[in-house]
Design goal:
By secondary structure, the chain is mostly helical. Helices cover about 45% and strands about 10% of the residues. The chain has a 3-stranded antiparallel beta sheet. A two-stranded antiparallel ribbon has the order 1-21. It has a two-stranded antiparallel ribbon with strand order 2-5. A hairpin with a 2-residue loop joins strand 3 and strand 4. Pfam families: Glycoamylase. InterPro entries: Glycoamylase-like_cons_dom, UCP028431. This is Tat pathway signal protein. It comes from Acetobacter lambici.
Amino acid sequence: MALRRFFAHGKTKTSQPARGRKSGRAFVSLLMLCSALGGMQVGGAQAATTSSSVVARPAPSSFRPDQTDRAFLADLEHRTFQWFWESADPATGLVPDRYPSDQTQSSVASIGFALTAYGIGADRGYINRQQAVDRTLTTLRYLWKLPQNDTPDKASGFHGFFYHFLRRDNGLRLGADIELSSIDTALLMQGVLFTGSYYTHDSASEAEIRDLAAKLFNRVDWRWMLRPDNRLSMGWSPEHGFLPNYWEGYNEGMMLYVMGLGSTTHPLDPTSWQAWISTNKNRWGESYGQTFLNFAPLFGHQYTHAWIDFRGIKDDWSRSAGIDYFENSRRAVYAQQGYATQNPGKWQDYGPNVWGLTASDGPAETTKVENGQSRKFMAYTARGVGRDYTLDDGTLAPTAAGGSVAFAPELAIPALRTMKDKYGDRIYGTYGFVDAFNPSYHDGKQAYWADDTYIGIDQGPILLMVENWRDGMVWNTMKDNPIICRGLLRAGFRGGWLSTRHTIVDHDDAVRLKQQQTQQQQTHAG
């Protein structure tokens, strides 16, 4: 069900501080209500699909960025990196959910993006390698020492998973409404795995990074989070047990299964991957001139791809469909741009170079009359467009285009530049793009609403995907990670760059087998 994760994702970020934070439980209730309602449209936007059996597909990109494009992206990447570098606590490595802000919570998902950001910063020369090593070590040491148990208020996690939000002063669970989150832990672990593959120098500090990364990842008990139907639960709490919601269908949950399948300590069985993709037939369809696996907000198409290069590699489903998952997400970007171009909801300024719906802040929970038409506006929510539903209130999130640069640079780069040029320093500042803005929202004080803060899990896709488009650095680093390679192979992926990675996995498995044999011999000898 597309709406299941659509609203569950709302608990990954907070509402704006003045409005208070919504709990994971509140969002679960909301998602169950909307699932019962079925498809939805907001603000007069009706879902449009292509009726023709011949559907346009984006041609391979012939886009050639000019010098101005490249200078702009270099500036955007540097500014976005600075958000992670300056927002993180240098004494613990904890990264806030949003910044600048007076909130007290750290987001474990933001930490995963930050751990990757430090490597990017070292490669780009924003910081030196030793600075990246020191900050990474501080973060991993702190995470490793945080308590893991089933108490409601004296733990940071359980079974290797971490709570969604941690207190910034001591790293413990933020409160009783915060769930042990499988997806936020997965985002953290992507960053952890990146550190293990990036810091390969023969030094004591980089060896410690690799050791801590392995310990943190190996502690995650993926099987504990597994339901009887072989799907992974979205979370757990000591008060209520496992959440009733689970991961299936095409969305950011893909990374959970890849890492779980790649684990050597608590591995998932390949049947879990089959359970996850079993609903693909229900998600495949036409939307705004494209045929693809639909998921309305663009974050679901970006998060896993930020670390894993799916170009040219296919599992059983993608082989049968004749499309890889990268191309699928590329089509989703084209569909979003097509929606904004058609602009069925008649939102202000929408067009070919002004588009982007995903999870983000919004102006307010209110209804206003604009040009004689009643308009419902929202605060934080996961906006999107697809064949299943459309949720749109005129709010645009630059991360929708920024996190899509690697998918469709010919659409994303002109959109980012147009938005920056049109709306200026109200949406582009010290740390790049603010989280969101809404040209259709007028309050009598400003010509339009613009956010005043940045959110970690929206900054992350911009930074990683711009870097992947510019140099492929994050993708190439993760191609050497045996966990990721093993997970993909066990899920049935073959071809492309993965064809040369069997040696990595075979070697790692051989080392593990030898270690097990040694342990068994020592046990018998004892």
